[in-house]
Amino acid sequence: MISFTCDYNVGACPEILHRLAETNLDQEPGYGEDRFCESAKARIREAVGCPDADVFFLVGGTQTNSTVISAMLKGYEGVIAAETGHIEVHEAGAVEFTGHKVLTIPSHQGKILAEELKAYLERFYADEAYSHMVFPGMVYISFPTEYGTLYSQEELTRIREVCLQYGLSLFIDGARLGYGLMSRESDLDLHELASLCDVFYIGGTKVGALCGEAVVFPGGNAPAHFFTTIKQHGALLAKGRLLGIQFDTLFTDGLYFRISRHAIDMAQELKSIFHKAGIEFYIDSPTNQQFVILTPNQIESLRKEVLFEIWDQLPDGRSVVRFVTSWATTKEQLSRLEELLATC
Amino acid sequence: MISFTCDYNVGACPEILHRLAETNLDQEPGYGEDRFCESAKARIREAVGCPDADVFFLVGGTQTNSTVISAMLKGYEGVIAAETGHIEVHEAGAVEFTGHKVLTIPSHQGKILAEELKAYLERFYADEAYSHMVFPGMVYISFPTEYGTLYSQEELTRIREVCLQYGLSLFIDGARLGYGLMSRESDLDLHELASLCDVFYIGGTKVGALCGEAVVFPGGNAPAHFFTTIKQHGALLAKGRLLGIQFDTLFTDGLYFRISRHAIDMAQELKSIFHKAGIEFYIDSPTNQQFVILTPNQIESLRKEVLFEIWDQLPDGRSVVRFVTSWATTKEQLSRLEELLATC
Amino acid sequence: MISFTCDYNVGACPEILHRLAETNLDQEPGYGEDRFCESAKARIREAVGCPDADVFFLVGGTQTNSTVISAMLKGYEGVIAAETGHIEVHEAGAVEFTGHKVLTIPSHQGKILAEELKAYLERFYADEAYSHMVFPGMVYISFPTEYGTLYSQEELTRIREVCLQYGLSLFIDGARLGYGLMSRESDLDLHELASLCDVFYIGGTKVGALCGEAVVFPGGNAPAHFFTTIKQHGALLAKGRLLGIQFDTLFTDGLYFRISRHAIDMAQELKSIFHKAGIEFYIDSPTNQQFVILTPNQIESLRKEVLFEIWDQLPDGRSVVRFVTSWATTKEQLSRLEELLATC
Amino acid sequence: MISFTCDYNVGACPEILHRLAETNLDQEPGYGEDRFCESAKARIREAVGCPDADVFFLVGGTQTNSTVISAMLKGYEGVIAAETGHIEVHEAGAVEFTGHKVLTIPSHQGKILAEELKAYLERFYADEAYSHMVFPGMVYISFPTEYGTLYSQEELTRIREVCLQYGLSLFIDGARLGYGLMSRESDLDLHELASLCDVFYIGGTKVGALCGEAVVFPGGNAPAHFFTTIKQHGALLAKGRLLGIQFDTLFTDGLYFRISRHAIDMAQELKSIFHKAGIEFYIDSPTNQQFVILTPNQIESLRKEVLFEIWDQLPDGRSVVRFVTSWATTKEQLSRLEELLATC
After folding, report:
1. Does domain D14-253 have CATH number 3.40.640.10?
2. Distance CA B282, CA D256 (A)
3. Which of C6, C8, C94 sits opposite D232 (nearest CB)?
4. Quick check: A93 and C102 CB within 8 A?
5. Residues of chain B contacting residue A208, judged by C-beta atoms under 8 Å apart
6. Largest alpha-carbon pair distance within chain D?
7. I need a labelling partner for D314 at 20 to 30 A (CA). Which of A196, A228, B122, D326 fits?
């Protein structure tokens, strides 16, 4: 079977495994105070162009979202997200578990619009009863979004302006950050992205690591005692070296960007294979997640040899299906898919 | 420098690294639905002698404690622990963060006594105002304890009886389980331990793994939808294979027990080195954590080459100091410590 | 000024004040163990036709909602509500504060539809990723709704059937229960309503009391140790007598229903005044809340002497405005309003 | 039966009932925006000598404690209290329910000592692992304490100094504040008390009101949007007038202090009755709670006509028993008790 189900279905970049083996018996302190974490933080500060940035390594995405969001919100505040946002839909209520409401606004293929955000905030403060309501305290967006789409620099800048106007912090979920930045359609680099938000994370789990997300507060603006908050949320890894080594490796010699670009190249190839096969696209995604529309017959036929996720059902009986490439996708896998598509 | 600070200061057993490399490009589903997790669960069920056991893999200890405790308690219940228990002291309030109180009873070198537990419960239900108080719903103990001590089969049986009498569940924190079971002074094996509690976990992080704790509900008595609760608590690893591979390896051919026994052998050797050097013991620990009393001069002298943790200050100016062995401790490290002790 | 802003803008029924004065120096136990609470519970059990019902007195509506909902949900569950539901909009995130998500479905003038509820549940369980999502555990509806509308017996029965089919409990927020039951358009009485849900409350604050809501578990199905949960949520009144006396009075000789009917009569009169004045209705409400559409000039003119709430802005510049009657509304107030409407 | 069980076993001061009746049909806004609340706040600001104080009215003590504490603590902080503190023992875990740990230090007849508080804080920050622990963020004390004892001005000043040194806020639970301030042994007045803490509350429930506690932030230092936090915690009374009227009345013409003094006078009389009867005191309390030691025979005999609370059991078979006076205690009740004591 060939799997295009997701970008976390294999292990790690060989470079990471190599480095883990190499350093395995070096004795280092726990909880992220090891020299690997130190080095990784220095490399990330340089990569994001923020010498004063605070950097923390957490283990997974849902954990990172709920820890960052609850640490940055006041008790009476909630977080605004697209109604398709990961925190709203697929995190089992992890944000609410910390006591905060997710406030939703419309999603446009996964993205929110600055003008709709602004309208939401205007309506909120115009409501006579707003002091009986959850205050918006933060905006959460994902880059790329859950639908593989990207914010342009202009779109992000305008969202940021609305946030500043209303005193909201802006948090970018970068679980697939590399696949966004390396997209040919992205007009944002890592420096620019860092300058346009209050906090973001660089996803490792989906971009070459066994696990791990690097949270960056570009302005050195981490909440006080954020280390203790991470511990309290069960998000502190005892062997922090596991995260330090991985991110140190990913940010050595541009590995993170190189493997992200590979996934984008594979996605481009995938798109062209679908085009050639006459498959309809559900969304025009410039990143590593591709959403196409298949008939029941096509699904049945492909599934004998290929794994992918059913995303949604259309009224006409066809299905929206997600195919995902990653740093580990091979040309051979794509060729085989092409052959199969030709016969179904 | 040689470090005896803790049992999580190096990487993983070579067998684990080997297995990670070997399986690295196998495509597998995420979130613990991979074949490695399946295999690991089967091996653990066999090792604990409970064919119906529910097994879940989480990433770290604090996370596991707060997830298990909050999933098993009712909203109005708290968890009883020794006043030195890890959840009471060193988890940054992770249990309280989930809304539950830790109810403390006295610690005897890290252990609670069945009779004191019983007295606590009798007093609680004798109090006219008990409905205004937090109901005891669970007992938390650690095996070995935070002081390296062990419950005997009889002690554990009596605690279990009190729990049954008062309708409390019994949870055993096994972050260092291997080092307890493999102690020469333990009269409990894994089957017996599993039969004497409602839930426990088999620590991986401190016993040979990069990360990971295997939660076991021996009677198949996991709370409903515990998977979703794990996700909600940010404790679900996307690449569950990382945990599956590690535990599958640890429970193949008795590796977990073999490396645990090695740490115990090293601890025995360490004890005899301290004895020979005339160092006073603070606690007579049968496991891999040893607590000795050093003078300021001894500490200063040793610290040039050896790392260890200051545990407590004594009124006479000396310090309680913790030395920890692990699966990775070498005879060479011990020999060097012996030489250094001879000169300080 | 005459106020139609809400149904909690004056004190209490004279009968209640009289009874408070009469019993003022009687010494009684605290926390709801007084004889007034006992008597009130007996009267309520009789009024709802459930001799085994568990009855608890809480102080206010938001408090009651969050206490009941969090006590009845499992940790991984959320509560389904109309997107206009009070718990979703105007309780400052009190439900999320207890760790639970509010799951919204469309609102039809404040009501949810059984078929849309069912569709939501079908979609949830059809989703391959549902174990990563918040489980629906309860349905919350209000009777009357926030828009003054009512569920018919058939509508409520069908919602109940869906709940039973999917294992959800059904909770009815009865903050204005009397005004619903006494509406001429209601085909439900208190016995029937009680038989169609798992828990509901009889609103006192908005129906003649100084404060207080009577929570009823018709089947004696209160969660274990609900008293302690109430205390934990800060919702236990020390002088429980204050609640007992009020509900005992309200449920003596049908006072609760009589004063509710008065508010309905006044609302009917109010409607006819608006009709005569040619005012457009925004919703056809059969209860004590009336929503009409006023021009800016009408609003400006009326506001010199009359208080009411602006509910929403229409695109054409007019406003949706809420007028509320209560047990205390007088014919004089309505007559004056009629005069004013004639001149604006 | 005569009850000395507590200070909340009757209704309210006649002045309050009178005022409630008098204002009953005045239409006023809800949620504390009425003119009674406004007036009451002005009177309280004057009584505490803090013209800029923020004042909020909540309904009960446990609710007030958990709302204030959780609003003022950061997420990673806990609150220090005596191990006998009300929040630690008798609030069903309401503080933990909001996610915060109660950190206990020794109790000396209900009081904490500045030097022990300081020692606790020194130990905390000297601990190498303190970042893995709950940070102390606030000190909670009660005045009078749960044992009826009082802090002197010097004791309170020294506690305050330690708080300032370590950046902790100081919160005084004044559920029985009047009975403390009016004690003949108190060397603190309300101005001084207000100047020595960051927040405190003036208890109404136990001092003449039907319900209600007035939270005072002397320096106008209420947390941002505290109104919304109150709502979120289910602690906002819709008919805020009920609280406004009561506190306005209590702080008119010194009523609060006059009735408090009456309770103290009755307590003095009670003490002298016990002395005359040769009853042993458990604590020498200068306030309205008296703790005496009775034999089983005395208890059995008295209980035929008198209600009181068993507080604790002594090893010799006798019991610690609490007798409480209040604003409503009468000389007749005391005389009857004296007669009964003479015969048992």
Report:
1. yes
2. 57
3. C94
4. no
5. none
6. 63
7. D326
Q: Determine which of C239, C243, C333 to mutate to test the interface with D (most D C-beta atoms within 10 Å).
A: C239
Which tens digit of pLDDT belongs to each residue from C12-22? 999 999 999 99
Q: How far apart are CA D341 and CA D343, in angstroms?
A: 5
**Helix, strand, or coil (residue A214):** strand
Specify the pLDDT at position A329: 98
D111: tokens are: 């009081």
At residue C53, the 3 state secondary structure works out as coil
In chain C, which residues fall in CATH 3.90.1150.10?
2-7+256-342
- Residue D344's pLDDT is 81
Residues A318 and C250: their CA atoms lie apart, in Å, by: 59
Number of neighbours of residue B261 by Cβ within 10 angstroms: 18
Q: Which two tokens stand for residue C235?
A: 């919702």
**Local confidence band at C198 (pLDDT 50, 70, 90 cut-offs):** very high
Element holding A299 (H helix, E strand): helix A296-302
In this prediction, residue C54 carries a pLDDT of 98
- What is the predicted ipTM? 0.97
Nearest to C227 by CA among C37, C52, C78: C37
Percent of chain A clearing pLDDT 90 (strictly above) = 99
| CATH for the stretch A14-254 | 3.40.640.10
Nearest to B286 by CA among B299, B270, B273: B270
Q: Which residue of A has its CA nearest to B330?
A: A25
Q: pLDDT, tens digit, for every residue of A122-166?
A: 999 999 999 999 999 999 999 999 999 999 999 999 999 999 999
Please, which pLDDT band fits residue D68 given cuts at 50, 70 and 90?
very high
The token pair that represents C190 in the structure block: 């208190």
Q: How far apart are CA D200 and CA A228, in angstroms?
A: 28
Taking residues D215-241, what's their average pLDDT? 98
The predicted structure's pLDDT at residue C207 = 98
Helix B35-48, helix B241-250: angle, nearest 10:
40
Contact call for C96 and A78, based on CB within 8 A: yes
Residue A80 has pLDDT above 90, yes or no: yes
pLDDT of amino acid A344: 81
Looking at chain D, the domain(s) classified CATH 3.40.640.10 span 14-253
- Confirm or reject contact between C76 and chain A (CB < 8 A): yes
**Exposure letters C303-341 (e unless 16+ CB within 10 A, then b):** eeebbbbbbeeeeeebbbbbbbbbbbbeeebbeebbebb
What residues does CATH 3.90.1150.10 cover in chain A?
2-7+256-343
User: CB neighbours (10 Å) of residue A305?
Assistant: 12
Quote the pLDDT of residue C37.
Answer: 98
- Architecture per CATH, domain C2-7+256-342, reads as Alpha-Beta Complex (3.90)
Q: What is the rounded CA–CA span in Å between residue A336 and residue B144? A: 53
Which one is the CATH code of A2-7+256-343: 3.30.830.10, 3.40.50.300, 3.90.1150.10, 3.40.50.360? 3.90.1150.10
Chain centroid to CA A298: 30
pTM: 0.97
How far does C231 lie from chain B, in Å, by closest CA?
Answer: 7
Q: Does D9 touch chain C (CB under 8 A)?
A: yes
Residue B344 has what pLDDT?
A: 81
Residues of chain C above pLDDT 90, percent:
99
Per-chain mean pLDDT for chain B: 97
Share the mean pLDDT of chain A. 97
